[in-house]
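Hi L.,

You mentioned the student needs an example of a multi-chain input paired with its predicted structure. This one should do, with 598 residues in total across all chains.
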Amino acid sequence: MKTPSDLYTEDLTIQFGGHIAVNKVSCRFKPNELTVVVGPNGAGKTTLFNLMSGQLIATSGKVMLGDTDLTRLAPSQRAKQGIGRAFQLTNLFPKLSVLENVRLAVQAQAKVGMRIFTHAKSLKYLEQQAYEYLSQTRLEKVAHLPVSALSHGDQRKLEVALLMAMQPAVFMFDEPTAGMSIDEAPVILELIDQIKQDSSKIILLVEHKMDVVRALADRIIVLHNGELVADGEPEEVIAMPIVREIYLGNAA
Amino acid sequence: MVWGIVIVIWLGLALSPFLFHDVRSQQVAARICVFIVLVASYDLLIGYTGIVSFAHTIFFGLGAYGAATALRHMGPGWDAIVIGGGIGIVMAVILAIFIGLLSLRVKAIFFTMVTLAVASVAVVLVSQFSDFTGGEDGITYKVPKLFKPATKLLVDDDGHVVRWLGTKLNGKLAAFYSVFCMSLLLYLAMIRIVNSPLGTVLKAVRENETRAEAIGYRVVTYRTLVFCISAVFAAIAGIIYAVWLKYTGPETVLSFSINIDILLMVVIGGMGTMSGAVIGVVLLNLAQYYLRDIMQLGAEATANLPLIPELLNPDRWLLWLGLSFILLVYFFPAGIAGTMLKPRVK
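Structure written out for the whole complex:
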């Protein structure tokens, strides 16, 4: 296991035509810290995530994990460096079974993807590991159903299971409880809390619900029009006038 | 059920020299064997990556022309097949890497257009470099002695070739069984690949490219790899076909209509199933070779009725072929194997 290192950005910027979606964001994320990213719709939260996990490539600036420069790497290469990303809109393999979804994530870690004459089913240990993640996320019962047959809540849980199966150093959740019913959301929050117990992990979370933010956050950063406008302890940030004005103001 | 059909088909092919004695059915059986490999390799590409390429016959042609030119210039030896075929395979892989990388730069329909252009260029090149390729006439050559019809595998006391169930145990039979065994082995190898960790990654990429990339699979690498694997299998199929036919020309291995045929076979059989390749190839080949005969019989049997014999006139076989395609696509939208294998849960 590598010693945990910081994830940080330097003047990270992306421009789409004339529109600057993320503007010179410099921020450092440390292990054993859960940072919640807040901001109104269109503030650039998901774009910032995409820049860090590789779905988008920055126009300028840097993304670093310890000494490794991630800025121009493909998402798969960043995943190998330890960046784990879950998506806001459920983004799974819909026709494959729940088990197969998780198994694929486990398999990616095992580096056996290039073997062409081994039967995938003969690699039993991959399947066993996949089952462990399914039991942690309470999805064993639906293991053999295709993902498209799952409820929205179960699909969100599977999103988390996939992320856990990647065993990343950095967990990035983009609104993990979006669209979930009140009785399902706590399961996700418990899982995040469980990940938090491991002090070597960096956790990033985009979240709108203030009760969730209060319960989990060690730190809050606020984005507005692509710029980083506040960064600090939860209570401190929530109390800031600018935050109340641009974000909490219209929510309250 | 589907795999049952596939096994029955392979058994039928294995027994075909003893069941049917005419030259034509042996040709059809060998063609089916080779095309199962070719279509399955095409299915690896289309069915498992979703890339539609019209350049697939080039790989087939490279293998065939490689073996053919070597057999022509080096004489009928095994060395010629190995060296010529080997060069063909290497060239196919190089081309596959180029096309594979291109597929990531250009998207879907444009990529298909580019492969169309590449395929046309290949046909033109073959007819222009006629000194080397034989142009439109193609190349004829001799094959190793074992495969000559005059070769006797077993002789009786009088020195005549032995017959089993009315089939002569001669070089032609040896050639057929070589084609059969090679094709079966290659097909099994492809099934293995589809079920390997690589195969599972391909299914993931087909389902959701972004997520496959996000959990750590380099999509570029996997796509190019499949392209190469697919090209190698197609090239080997080409070599086998070249040795079987003792002739290689644009019409047998390179023409655009072959690519349309194999595309139809994949679609009718069922994309991304492997079993579909077998079913599609058999259906289309039997239709192309025997539909006219069946219609002839039908027309004769109904000769006394009005109108029907006219409709069943063998000259109208293409009409019936077309109609049956439409019906097949209507009732089996995911292909025959694809529709039958579809899970009931939904």
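You could point out the following to them. Chain A is about 35% helix and 25% strand. The mean pLDDT of chain A is 86.

Best wishes,
N.
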